[in-house]
């Protein structure tokens, strides 16, 4: 057996119960257009809880991301992103997500509707989610892995920092893709 073929359960969703995000084995990332390329970044401080109901449509998700933990591997850019034009991390230290509905769309896929709050502005978003598998870990616990993404218009959240280009257009794109790779630990 290779590490790419770990055994997982056949269930289409993790077992009912309370699951907590393991930040050591998860990532909260974003991608935004910058000039002609795509710039990637991440947040390093976050937490979340997923409660799976017997009826998956009644499951819930809550998550908090600390804006001061933004990391693009360039210290000066990170400070700029924490500032007034972008995340305003001193005044709005947290971004929050709270689910409002869950739909299964396939054997291992679903959508999670919810309210995303950035800079004190709340908008409705839909996360497209894939359940990558559930398995026991070497220490007797149970892990489930999910991958999810959504796209937002950052200006709808008041994140409007930008610079005009000499030939027209803007330096930073409005659309931000949010990508989550989450390893969950089931609470006993």
UniProtKB/TrEMBL annotation:
Signal peptide: none annotated. InterPro entries: Lipid/polyisoprenoid-bd_YceI, TTHA0802/YceI-like_sf. Residues 18-185 form the Lipid/polyisoprenoid-binding YceI-like domain. Pfam families: YceI. Gene3D superfamilies: Lipid/polyisoprenoid-binding, YceI-like. Belongs to the UPF0312 family. This is Polyisoprenoid-binding protein YceI. It comes from Streptoalloteichus hindustanus. The lineage of its organism: Bacteria, Bacillati, Actinomycetota, Actinomycetes, Pseudonocardiales.
